[in-house]
Amino acid sequence: MIVHVVTDDPGIWGQIFNYDNYGELLALVTNSLVAGAVLGIVGGLISVVVMMRDLAFAVHGIAELSFAGASAALLAGVNVAAGSLAGSILAALVIGALGIRARDRNSVIGVLMPFGLGLGVLFLALYKGRAANKFGLLTGQIVAVDTPQMTWLLGTSAITLVALAVVWRPLAFASVDPEVAAARGVPVRALSPAFTLILGLAVSVSIQVVGALLVLALLVTPAAAAMRVTASPRLVPLLSVAFAVTSMVGGILLALGSSIPISPYVTTVSFTFYLACRAIGALRMRAGWGDRSAAPATV
At what angle are helices 56-76 and 131-139 packed, to 10 degrees? Predict the structure, then answer.
């Protein structure tokens, strides 16, 4: 006699990609899709300046203190978004004040990162609430965006975009050629801490989406990919925003219905764009279509 045992285990691929009742679930994540698109715009534009100023390490450093602030807020039972913002702003102020030269900046960030991560782990260890809340700070939880969180996210994103629009042209000039910019009267020294604060705002809202560990996928990778295929000052921001928005919205749509956090989907889509752009850039170089100097050495 043969007994067939039926199990509900969907397997690994069933956990990663599950499209049962997809239409019903899609109607429940309107806020998430809007939030993803907005954060894609913010991340795409911010990442351009991050790459021009070689601040990828700073993004990670700010993210660690933002994580510590969010963890402290979770432990205290107050607004987690406010805690994340406070941690980001504190990190931005410290990096902006002490890290004027690249070597000084990297040293400060190297000190802040383990300190912030250690504090965050401590606060999470003391927190006795739902484990999902702890995990969400590290990996993101955009599928749970509610109206109050949406209002906070949209407000912070709007402030970030307005501030970035105000300083965009002088900031780009100072990033490309700081000595000439200073000679032309551009406040180069003031722009550095100003952008660091803007970066802190962007990191704080991104933490709520992709988490503290994977925020680089939103604030670095899009522009790193775009700069592989063009050096145009107009096309780079457009491509970067397109890559970031597609990564965010596409990640949400792929993650919908699965039991996996959204961040692996976002980072995978974003990394796929980077690999494709890197391959296209390499083919163009071999064909003699591009100038090798146009590709940033730090990408």
Answer: 160
